[in-house]
Amino acid sequence: MKTYKEVDVVLVGGGWTGGILGKEFSEAGMTVVCLERGGPHTPDDFSVPRMRDELAVGQRMSMMVNTTDNTETVRNKSAETALPYRRLGSYLMGTGVGGASTHWNGHTWRWNDNDFQIRSRYEAKYGKQYIPADMTIQDWGVTYAELEPYYDKFEKVAGISAKAGNVQGRKIAGGNVFEAPRRSEYPMPPLVYGYAGELFAEAAGKMGYHPFPRPTANASVPYTNPDGVKFGECQYCGHCERFGCEANAKGGAQMTVIPAALRQSTFELRTYAWVTRVERDASGKKATGVTYTNTVTGEECFQPAKLVVLCAFGLNNVHLMMLSGIGEIYDPVSGKGLLGKNYCYQTGSAAMLFFEDKHFHPYMATAGIGAIMDDFHGNWDFDRAPFGFVGGSTVGTAMYGGRPIQWHPTPAGTPAWGSAWKQETAKWYDRSMNITATGTVMPFRGNYLDLDPTYRNRFGAPLMRMTFDYQDNERKISAHSADVINRIAAALGPTHLSKASARQSWSSVPYQSTHNTGGTIMGTNPGNSVTNKYGQVWQVDNLFIMGASLFPHNSAYNPTGPVAAIAYMAADIIKKVYVKQPGKLIHA
Amino acid sequence: MSDTRDQQPRRDFLLRSLAAGASAASLPLAAATATAATAAPTPAAAPSGYLWLRPDEQVFVEALVNHMCPADGLTPDGVTLGLAVFYDRALGGNWGQGDRLYLQGPFKQGSANQGYQLGMTPAQLFRAGTEGLADYCRATHGKPFDRLPSEAREALLKELQSGKAALPNGVPAAVYFAQLLQMFYEAMFADPIYGGNQDKQGWKLVGYPGVNTANKVNIIKYANKPYRPEPAGIADLS
């Protein structure tokens, strides 16, 4: 085994959190090695015309992980035999430098204390008995006020285009009036709504709701971020989600924090480095570094480090903790063990509206386009009691590119092929819009991650096993959001309407969301969580975990806002406190 | 697209498929095998040349794509659009050969929510499914798919789609058909560089501009107004 020289920090994964920590630590003079299992990205990788190849990139998903390297096994409940997620479908993990930030949509939200103090808030408003016994929600141990400066920092680094709805307590119509107070306006004005967004905003506004432009990392104007990184202006080319941006208009780690870190002589990025284990000393309470395989040479390597930080996609962080044998894997029967607990996903619903007399040009789009409303999620005054659920949903339009292999909607009853299919497809391609909802998923006793007893990855390690299904709480949220969607849709008077309906059971097949959360959750003490609010593992205090695996439940918002803010907050306290006095940052 | 096809007047898809079926079927087995073994097979029904599909599969795919995309006032027939060539290239290429598909066993039939669980690559599924379909057609109709009248083909495809057709070799009909149908949409709308969507007819059908999509100004200028730009493909911009 090849053993490298010890560094101050080893980062496992080169996406947003690896990039953020890499930049912050290396600029502070710490020596950092970032290990990325995928390859590098050069500007040529995202060049036109090949980056606008829907078949290769959108359909065959050339930017995503290869399931033959590693995947998960999936099932809806413990009584089933889990089987491999053989082909990507429901969720799409990226790979290579930049990780998911190369192919993400860019939707960036500030989660607030409705989420961070979820249990205490619901108990205070609805009573303890309102929360089902097997719903394992908990307060996160962090507050919005603590994260606010870091959200602000990230929004400027990633280049978020949006309109504020609450600046220092002043509510601003046209922004999200339900958001928590922010210190300043977003760095760029919002993108245009697009015609579908305009129709939605008008109808929702008339019904008394509060639509606003979706906050997103697509530069609405030419922009230079605080590190001097120049962003191009979004051209509404309709190739964001699943694609890289050739215009550098979509904020990503590979074009912002990682190049900034690479300017420091103390930062080294090693690609094709697949970490297989976090190593510890004999006491088991101190990490000594990580073992990885150089996937080019096949050589096994050891990178010693004073501090180990897991910065991979959430599911991979959980998997690595399990393969490293750190902590006890959750057992849903006894309720013991914390690793793999509180795995959550997202729910939702969607309607398609067809208008004889309108033109939407669905390909004139970005992934951040459209109007959205937070009246049934961020709005704490929305009374959940009549509906009987914990959580909520955001509702808006989601017209992300009109790429025709995946977007060729027709009204119900249309044949799937033949001349009639052609006629209807030709007619409705340009005359359709959608309204969609993204709903929260709360943690339940029976939804969890552990190791599969049968299937293995390319290194012979057990795959992680995902046991997940929507519970009554989520079915109620989905039904409620479908009702909201259908009422707004009806108000728009479409020629045909394919109504939204409630999701009943999770399927791994159609794409839904890559917001897989939980598994190494944060909390207030070692009895309820794997890490403290800084992502510091309670039982191994020089091991930190970043990313959405820290989230004790999943919101109706996209996860990147708090993922990045928690990373910046952790970087700050590690630089200011931990390096001077390594040890537990919180005693509980 | 080959010269042969360009010079050939568009013929009724049924006649064309019948002719294609007859030419391949009339080849003695030994001759067909010898052709395949000695040189790239160039049967009459394959003006663009096939790399991966066998002659009987070529006949089937041509009949299939001409049924799914018949010549009408909207587009030429599927073969003329290159859809059959798309199937050939896709099945013979990385995706067809199982790229990015986890194929470690054991293989078990799971719930629908667990997704694809067969131990076959897309190309293997296509081959086995098409063999099963040929046997099924012979057993139920006494002739292959490409010799059936349009109504019988339509009914047969619906039996496959619903899973009602029990293919004698055990290939799950609905899984096989879902792949055929997904490939049909891909062939219609993928960049012409992959063989289908020739002359960007699939894109022109719906009004998709292809890779030529700078819309910063257009999204305002053409809001709710008709707009049909001339599409551009990868080859136009490379």
TrEMBL record, chain A:
Family annotation (InterPro entries): FAD/NAD-bd_sf, GMC_OxRdtase_N, GMC_OxRtase_C
SUPFAM superfamilies per record: FAD-linked reductases, C-terminal domain (SSF54373), FAD/NAD(P)-binding domain (SSF51905)
Ranges of residues in domain Glucose-methanol-choline oxidoreductase N-terminal: 231-335
Keyword field: FAD, Flavoprotein, Oxidoreductase
Domain of life: Bacteria
Domain Glucose-methanol-choline oxidoreductase C-terminal: 445-567
Family: Belongs to the GMC oxidoreductase family.
Name recorded for this polypeptide: GMC family oxidoreductase
Species of the source: Duganella margarita
UniProtKB/TrEMBL annotation, chain B:
Pfam families listed in its UniProt record: Gluconate_2-dh3
Domain of life: Bacteria
Signal peptide extent: 1-39
Presence of keyword Cell membrane: no
Keywords: Signal
InterPro entries, alphabetized: Gluconate_2DH_su3, TAT_signal
Keyword Cell cycle among UniProt keywords: no
Protein's name according to its UniProt entry: Gluconate 2-dehydrogenase subunit 3 family protein
Organism: Duganella margarita
